[in-house]
């Protein structure tokens, strides 16, 4: 069985987000390239140099090269409901620390600072988020080491990917690329060839990670670069909750982001991965903004394991992202909770894949899309039940909320069911914030913008509940700010 | 308190109100009755500021202010409350949260201090007792999955918490069985006070058995054509609206 529908296609306008891409890079990178930077462009030589600069072992270099060679053979994908201008991969520097970062908060866009104010970002974090050269402003090392010591006591490894390659090569070699193979897709292959850095987490057998890894991450991992690579391994009966990103808006000189995240859950292990993505979305006319092409996949490798993805996506000009679960172990569980908000000229094509392989596997998908302005927001999901997945169950709920008349919401649910005992349910709704709802709120004294954020917050409740507490509060505020000017 | 003079209003290009005048003083309960299409609900919507209702002539003042110049939320803060004929569902938004947001928005607008959770909860507990509403309603989303009667009771409960100066009840009795009607009426009666006025828009006389009005007005073809005390409602009940149709508009109102 295979179903494709496009529901409720409203009037959309062409989003001309693309043209600024090349220009920005020229403007940003011709001047003052640091000595340890690489020239623009991508070639085998560049991959080798990059690996050498990062002092990687031979096996890693070879791994990157294999990915690069594979990437060369692949066509750029165009199946998503996104309008993307041609990306010039030769116009990008794959290892550069641009010097034109602001020197102090005084040099930062006041609008950005205003947003930090509204979100209540602590002062010492603002500089880091705004991309100010941090070393001079805020020393994160001491904070980092404190956490690290506490984690090490229970055997948890939490470090940068570069560090893991050097210090835990046996783990990296065993697991890297085992969930997302180097040739998995165009952007994953590119990432495998040139990934800059990312996080590595290892939770040993039976250990429940003593803290939300978010806390540490927010303070310590501001600049991971445009090709982020993350690997999280939870051994038997281990548990970890990891939060990526930050509700505060992140500026970045790099327009193309292609991250890969791999999760491995062994027997009875649980991984909860939450994301708040708030990259620069471009201005109201769609100029600038990050292109975000992400491959995220979790492998429930062991029986009774569970992987849960929760994401709140409000940023980026273009989002291409489908956090997925491969439910290999019997009775394993995959979950996906998503809020994707688009405004102005933003485009998002996001959803999930749930691949049922083991017996009595369960998956749950709750997707909430909110479109405002002239944006386009698509949910794309695949539920696949393999032949041997006796008793598999899926429940999908997919709701779209439209604000205004010029945005679009689309739903593309795909189902492939090869086992007759499977139960697959799909529910979808599309609604608008109605004039009646707005008037009802206003007649009670609540102003229009507050009424909209209240209604949107209600719409997202199911997903916010899944976020770690402090981030649920921030995510709510974030939506309010992202929707400013959406009505009236 | 409320002074409506020669009000003309139009909806989608069609004239609905055609010279309505009415004066309401504090403490008074006025019933507006009339056949379908007379303009009863339009009056409620114009007074509360709903979009799409165009006032073409006349004026409305509320405590000396030009009510028509205010946004709906500012009218609410000024003390005008509309109990909706069809209360709207807002999925996922907790009823208590909504009400607190509304009350605090109004208080803020009036320059009064906002209530914190504890103060608000205390207020809600007091009002619950008066309204005989189970606190289970408070934990649900605004009107979501409420029965018709629950929705109307929730409107009256909101009114109790918001304590308006002028409450407009738009066919609050419609769709209620007799028990629900009694409960809603009890709620309204409990809120009657010398400082608070009510404008009850209704099609049927039966609400007036439970909430005794000081004045009854008959609205037909966009004008008040007859005014009197509660005996007028009984006469209407007996003779039907046909009895009064074709009369010339009544003169100055109470």
How would you characterize the overall build of this protein?
The complex is a heterodimer of chains A (488) and B (254). Chain A is an alpha/beta fold. In chain A, 28% of the residues lie in helices and 28% in strands. Chain A contains 13 helices and 17 strands. In chain A, the strands form two sheets. In chain A, strands 1, 2, 3, 5, 7, 9, 10, 12, 14 and 16 form a ten-stranded mixed β-sheet that branches. In chain A, strands 4-6-8-11-13-15-17 form a seven-stranded parallel β-sheet. Chain A is globular, with a radius of gyration of 22 Å. Mean pLDDT of chain A is 79; it is low at 1-35, 132-144 and 215-224. Chain B is 35% helix and 28% strand. The longest helix of chain B has 15 residues, at 95-109. Chain B is globular and about 55 Å long. The A-B interface holds A 434-437, 439-448, 450, 454-455, 457-462 and B 48-51, 71-73, 75-77, 81-82, 84, 87-88, 90-93, 98-99, 101-103, 105-106, 109, 141, 158, 162.
Q: Give the assembly state of these chains.
A: heterodimer
**Strand fraction of chain A:** 25-35%
**Spans where pLDDT lies below 50 across 5 or more residues of chain B:** none
Shape of chain B: globular
User: How much β-strand is present in the residues of chain B?
Assistant: 25-35%
Shape estimate of chain A: globular
Helix content of chain B: 25-40%
Secondary-structure element string of chain A: HHHHHHEHHHEHEEEEEEEEEEEEEEEHHH
Instruction: Give the strand order, joined by hyphens, for the main sheet of chain B.
Output: 6-9-10-3-11-12
Q: Would you count the extended β strands of chain A for me? A: 17
Number of distinct beta strands of chain B: 12
Q: What structural class do the secondary elements of chain A suggest?
A: alpha/beta
Instruction: Report the C-alpha radius of gyration of chain B, rounded.
Output: 18 Å
Can you tell me the residue ranges of chain A where pLDDT is under 50 for at least 5 consecutive residues? 1-35, 132-144, 215-224
Overall mean pLDDT of chain A stands at 79
Count, helices of chain B: 8
Largest sheet of chain B: 6 strands, mixed
Biggest interface, residues from each chain: A-B, 23 and 30 residues
Q: Report the structural category of chain B.
A: alpha/beta
């Amino acid at each position: 069985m295979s179903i494709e529908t496009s529901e409720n296609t409203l009037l959309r306008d062409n989003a001309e987000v693309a043209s600024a891409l090349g220009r920005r890079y020229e403007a940003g990178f011709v001047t003052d390239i640091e000595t340890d930077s690489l020239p623009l462009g991508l070639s085998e030589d560049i991959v080798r140099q990059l690996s050498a600069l990062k002092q990687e072992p031979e096996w890693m270099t070879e791994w990157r090269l294999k990915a690069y060679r594979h990437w060369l053979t692949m066509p750029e994908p165009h199946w998503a409901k996104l309008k993307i201008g041609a990306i010039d991969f030769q116009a990008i520097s794959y290892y550069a620390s641009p010097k034109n970062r602001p020197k102090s908060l005084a040099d930062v866009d006041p609008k950005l600072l205003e947003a930090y104010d509204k979100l209540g970002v602590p002062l010492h974090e603002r500089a880091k988020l705004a991309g100010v050269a941090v070393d001079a402003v805020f020393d994160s090392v001491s904070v980092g080491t404190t956490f690290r010591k506490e984690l090490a006591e229970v055997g948890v490894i939490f470090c940068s990917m570069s560090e893991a390659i050097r210090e835990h090569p046996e783990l990296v070699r065993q697991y890297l690329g085992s969930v997302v193979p180097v040739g998995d897709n165009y952007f994953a292959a590119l990432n495998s060839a040139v990934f800059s850095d990312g996080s590595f987490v290892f939770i040993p057998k039976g250990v429940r990670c003593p803290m939300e890894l978010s806390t540490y991450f927010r303070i310590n991992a501001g600049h991971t670069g445009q090709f982020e690579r993350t690997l999280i391994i939870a051994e038997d009966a281990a548990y970890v909750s990891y939060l990526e990103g930050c509700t505060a808006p992140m500026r970045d000189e790099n327009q193309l982001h292609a991250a890969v995240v791999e999760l491995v859950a062994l027997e009875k292990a649980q991984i909860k991965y939450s994301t708040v993505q708030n990259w620069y979305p471009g201005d109201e006319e769609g100029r600038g903004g990050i292109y975000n092409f992400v491959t995220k996949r979790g492998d429930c490798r062991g029986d009774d394991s569970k992987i849960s993805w929760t994401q709140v996506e409000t940023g980026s000009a273009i989002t291409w992202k489908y956090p997925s679960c491969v439910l290999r172990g019997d009775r394993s569980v995959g979950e996906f909770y998503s809020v994707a908000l688009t405004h102005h000229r933003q485009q998002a094509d996001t959803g999930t894949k749930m691949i049922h392989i083991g017996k009595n596997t369960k998956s749950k998908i709750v997707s909430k899309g909110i479109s405002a302005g002239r944006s386009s927001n698509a949910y794309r999901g695949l539920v696949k039940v393999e032949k041997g997945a006796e008793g598999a169950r899926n429940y999908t709920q997919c709701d779209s909320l439209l604000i205004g008349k010029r945005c679009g919401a689309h739903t593309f649910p795909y189902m492939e069911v090869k086992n007759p005992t499977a139960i697959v349910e799909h529910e979808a709704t599309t609604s608008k914030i109605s004039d009646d709802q707005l008037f009802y709120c206003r007649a009670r004294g609540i102003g229009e913008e507050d009424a909209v954020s209240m209604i949107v917050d209600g719409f997202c409740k199911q997903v916010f509940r899944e976020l770690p507490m402090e981030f649920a509060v921030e995510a709510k505020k974030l939506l309010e700010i992202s929707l400013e000017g959406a009505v009236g | 308190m409320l002074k409506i003079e020669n009000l003309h209003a139009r909806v989608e290009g069609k004239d609905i109100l055609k010279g309505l005048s009415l004066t309401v003083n504090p403490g008074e309960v006025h019933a507006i009755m009339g056949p379908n299409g007379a303009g009863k609900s339009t009056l409620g919507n114009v007074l509360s500021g709903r979009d799409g209702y165009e006032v073409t002539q006349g004026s409305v003042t509320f405590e000396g202010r030009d009510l028509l110049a205010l946004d709906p939320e500012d009218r609410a803060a000024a003390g005008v409350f509309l109990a909706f004929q069809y209360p709207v569902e807002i999925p996922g938004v907790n009823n208590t949260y909504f009400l607190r947001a509304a009350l605090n928005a109004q208080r803020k607008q009036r320059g009064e201090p906002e209530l914190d959770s504890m103060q608000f909860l205390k207020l809600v507990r007091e009002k619950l007792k008066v309204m005989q509403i189970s606190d289970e309603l408070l934990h649900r989303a605004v009107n979501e999955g409420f029965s018709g009667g629950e929705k109307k009771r929730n409107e009256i409960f909101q009114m109790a918490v918001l304590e308006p100066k002028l409450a407009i009840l738009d066919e609050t009795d419609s769709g209620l069985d007799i028990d629900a009607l009694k409960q809603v009426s009890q709620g309204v009666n409990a809120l009657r006070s010398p400082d608070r006025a009510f404008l009850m828009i209704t099609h049927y006389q039966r609400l007036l058995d439970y909430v005794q009005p000081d004045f009854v007005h008959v609205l037909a073809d966009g004008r008040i054509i007859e005014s009197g005390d509660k005996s007028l409602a009984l006469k209407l009940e007996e003779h039907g609206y046909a009895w009064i149709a074709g009369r010339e508009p009544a003169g100055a109102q109470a």
